[in-house]
Amino acid sequence: MWRSMESGWKLLAGLLQGMVAARKWLLAYVLLILLPASIMLASFYQRSNDVLEEEVTRTMQLTLKQAALNLTYKLNHIRDSSNSIFMNQILYDNLQRQDTITEQLSQIKELRNLAGTAQENGDVFRVRFYVDKSRLYGSDRINLYPLADMEQYPWYPAVQEAGGGIVWSGIYTENYIDSGEREVFSAARILRNPQQYEEIIGVLVLDMSQQLIAEIVSGLNFSEQYAPYLIDGSGNVIYSGATAEAVAAAEPVEPAAEPDAESVVKRPAKLPDNIIRTLQTSSEGSLKREEGGEELHLVYSSIGTTGWKLVAQVSKAEISHRATALNQFTSIAALGGITVMFLVLVFVLLMFMVQGMQRRVKLILRMIRKEGIGWLEDRRSLPDGDFRLLERSVDHLIHKVNNLMEDSYRAKIQEREAQLRTLQAQINPHFLYNALDMINWSAIAHDAEDTSQMIEALARYFRLSLNSGRDNVSIADELNLARVFLEIQQNRFPSTFSFTIEQEPGLEQYLIPKLTLQPLVENALLHGIRKSKGKQGTIRIRAAREQEDLLLTVADDGIGMSAEQAERLLLEPEPGVKQEGDSSFGLYNVHERIRYFAGERYGVSIETEQGKGTIIRIKVKAITED
User: Are strands 172-176 and 237-240 parallel, antiparallel or unpaired?
Assistant: First the structure.
């Protein structure tokens, strides 16, 4: 049990190592497989949408055409019934003027019989005759109506213009005495007197229930948002499946209000003029249009000789939704399968590669322990490959480590030698102090006070300058060193110069690099005052605090120098060229040591003018001893 768990953990660790090592492989997978596959799938989706749009449009066209044929068949049957009445001589005989009541009652009976025969057609709800009421003994308003009542219908002018042809009205509400209000549409035509053709003796109207259209149109379920509808030749909506109510004939339908919670079907509005013109030029077809920022597919088909068009539309979003629903699972499954198979393959290969590399590394380390680094040198002639690359990398690493060990060993040896030199250097000052002390006592014994003072000053100078081997000294020690140096030079050049040293209180704890002032003081004396015409002058040394910095000043009233010469003093001297002044401590040396000690923004600056002296300022960061 424990061994199986340990084996499982090793396998998991190998897979994790493979994942870490497979970063480039995963990037290559994303760029070379996942991204192209995504692009292909996106193209496939787009193509599927296009194909589905074509198929949906074609299916809608076929279905709509079949519905239009069914409606045309019914309307043609109604047209035949109208033609049968229109061509019946009995109709015209009974519409002639009769004087006697008996003859008029006979006419009423014949016309009712004629209407009853036509109403035996199940699609015809009511036959109405509109005649001059002076020709009849009153009107029953069941089948017989006064001709003047036709004036109330907006489509009556079209009936008059048709001159006997059938005019189809839209859906409208008609109030019948025996049946109440009904939603109907009508086929109307003018009736003329055969004996005097110019005389209009009546109007024949066949009424059909709007259910005749609803039964056919309601079966067209192309969209959940847009119901099919009928339009007349002018583009006015005469019937819409979006509402239970009929749409008034020859009146454009305004867009419906916001749909309620139970219905999202949109009520159609009158089509744009350019769409109407397109529909008028062809009997059937399909086109694309936009409504409210939404792209729609619109299909239409003509209804017989009525001039009507049966129109259905569906939004592109609905079609895309169907395409997505059809292809989503398949596409995701395909992409997921490809991804999983590739990743499994990559991880398995990487696991074997990592394990193989581990074995090779262990072999290399074992052979190095056994035979040394020379074993790697012997294998350099082998052909290149992944494992040779690994071996060369290990070889380079081992040689680098070996070189670092040698460098560290040499550094330790040099450090030891430096310590020995330091100990040796500590012996020399003691010997020098003792020797100077012996010479001093000898001078005192021979009453040579001047010599004794010089020797004592020189001893103080060496004690201050050597300073127990420290690199940084206090401001006070550095000023004392400058004082001792100048006192020695006064003995060397008596009555030629004077000096003053000023120090602000509280600067004793601050440190500066050793031998910072002495080279500047020496330059001021030897190259400033001693080269003047009278070889006399004054040296002023001052130490002050400026916020977080220290400012040391060495000023003389000697011969000065040019600005170019002063600028050259702060530049690194060329190799082999001795810097003007002291051979060991020039201004450049002091400037660089200050910058190394405090930072790049610190150092030495020179203010000078020929014949008027020189002022050298040292700006250094205020640092105290820890």
Answer: unpaired
Strands 294-303 and 613-621: unpaired
What residues have CB less than 8 Å from 495, skipping those under 6 apart? none
User: b/e for 316-328, b at 16 or more Cβ within 10 A?
Assistant: bebbbebbeeebe
Nearest to 373 by CA among 407, 396, 404: 396
Paired strand residues for 229: 240, 311
Tell how many helices (H) and how many strands (E) occur in the chain.
Answer: 16, 19
| 469 pLDDT above the threshold of 60 | no
Name beta bridge partners: 544.
551
Element (H, E) at 21: helix 2-21
For residues 604 and 616, the answer to whether their CB atoms sit within 8 Å is yes
63-122 pLDDT, tens digit each: 888 988 998 988 998 899 899 999 988 888 888 877 777 887 888 888 888 888 888 888
Note the pLDDT of residue 616: 93
C-alpha to C-alpha distances, 427 to 421, 465, 473, 622, nearest whole angstrom: 10, 16, 21, 33
**Pairwise CA distance, residues 612 & 537, whole Å:** 11
Residue-wise pLDDT tens digits, 161-219: 988 899 998 889 999 988 899 999 999 999 988 888 888 888 999 999 988 888 888 88
* 475 within 8 A of 550, measured Cβ to Cβ: yes
Residues whose CB is less than 8 angstroms from the CB of residue 570 and which lie 6 or more positions away in sequence, other chains included:
587, 588, 591, 603, 604, 606
- Provide the pLDDT for residue 494: 85
Res 618: pLDDT: 93
Cβ-contact 475, 618 below 8 angstroms: no
Residues ≥6 apart with Cβ < 8 Å to 296 = 226, 288, 289, 290, 313, 314, 315, 316
Instruction: Give the tokens for residue 210.
Output: 């709007």
pTM: 0.47
Exposed/middle/buried for 342, CB within 10 Å: 0-12, 13-18, 19+?
Answer: middle
C-alpha gyration radius of the chain: 59
CA dihedral 42, 46, 47, 52 (to 10 degrees): 130
Tokens at residue 410, please? 């040499």
CA distance 317 to 257: 22
Round to whole Å and give the CA distance between 131 and 277.
38
